[in-house]
Amino acid sequence: MTINYAHRGASAYYPENTMLSFEKALEMGATGIETDVQLTKDGVLVLIHDEMVNRTTNGEGFVKDYTYKELNKLDAGSWMDEKFAGIKIPTVEELIYLTLDKDIIINFEIKNGIVIYEDIEQKLIDLIYKHKINHKVILSSFNHYSIAKCNKISKGINTGVLYMEGIYKPYNYASTVGANAIHPYFPAINEEVIKQTQKHRTQINVFTVDDEEKMKFFLNMKVDGIITNCPDKLHKIMILYK
User: Fold this and answer.
1) Which domains can be identified in the chain, with CATH numbers?
2) Which residue range or ranges hold the GP-PDE domain (predicted)?
3) Which pLDDT does position 78 carry in this prediction?
């Protein structure tokens, strides 16, 4: 069964990467959550997409320059709508607690490119094992050195390589960093590559698919996961495919 990954939660409707967005995604039928992990100045793993807080909060500057206490004072909801005023940037642990008793897969995207966070992989993996959810997690990143590092630390967690443009035989490439999944931007993959990837027993999780016809195409191709801003739309279509 294809996993319905809510991209930063139900981000088409609620402030991205917030607990409200994650909670609403689950209500909409999401069976997975995709989110972005960064590190505060004092080493707390937090969920926010941009390396800077400017776009999605009322603050300014880099996440890495804030302590968690300082980051927690920021408003992460008003940028989208005043009715979301006062919403906070959550921690990795808050999302883990939300999903602990649920059959939900978490796709943690490690943001380790523009800002290089020292030991972010180790910190995240330690937290995953602390809560014994290694079987309910997949780690991904555009920084494939980061994925290789994750696989060196632990082979007990699924990993995927994120990419935007066509990679020749991506299933072969993924194996070079120890990943068992590819996470392509949806225009970067076609039917032939999907079939070959499946033949090589490599998972496919495509992003970010909000168009219903494209959702139907990828469901027909039986990809492992579809990452979407609209988990409600995907859920309704998936009911028809059961």
Assistant:
1) 3-38+93-240 (3.20.20.190)
2) 2-238
3) 98
CB-CB contact of 204 with 198 (8 Å): yes
207: number of Cβ within 10 Å: 22
pLDDT digits (tens, 9 = 90+) for 93-106: 999 999 999 999 99
pLDDT in tens, 165-179: 999 999 999 999 999
Q: CA torsion sign, 171 to 110 to 27 to 103?
A: positive
Contact 107/33 with Cβ under 8 angstroms?
A: yes
| Contact assessment for residue 179 and residue 197, using Cβ atoms and an 8 Å cutoff | no
d(CA 135, CA 47): 20
- CA 195, 200, 202: angle at the middle one, nearest 5? 90
Which residue, 164, 55, 162, is CA-closest to 111?
162
pLDDT band at 191 (very low <50, low <70, confident <90, very high): very high
- Calculate the alpha carbon distances from 139 to 72, 77, 151 in Å: 25, 26, 10
Q: How far is CA 200 from the centre of its chain?
A: 24
What are the tens digits of pLDDT across the range 4-59?
999 999 999 999 999 999 999 999 999 999 999 999 999 999 999 999 999 999 99
